[in-house]
Amino acid sequence: MRLKKTGVIAALLALLLATGTAITLSTTASAAAGPAPSCAQFWWTNPYLGFPTLIPTANLSYGSSGPCVKILQQDLNFVINARLRVDGQFGPKTLTAVETFQGKELACTGGVDGIAGHHTMSCLVAGSG
Prior knowledge:
Oligomer: single chain
Mean pLDDT: 73
């Protein structure tokens, strides 16, 4: 059943990305969650985790840094148990983790390039369920 739910979430995220639709939380939830980093395309409450999940718009690659990289590292730690230090620096270990995730999810990510763009991030967030 979990695989089916994850597939539904992945399909929903793909549809939202294709149509450019944004999902936002209610005002009450937004206030409780705090401001979203400027890199967030949209955020939503993940029904499996119960807290806001951010999907960055930035294409994150080796050498990137900042709050979007922290989101990426946290998601990689949760989804593939990458054991990354969440420091906001896209270094060699983060690159390896991104490539590993992309290799495991080729149908969703579209290939292995080491760049965490909107497809990879959407697949990663969908995989957190």
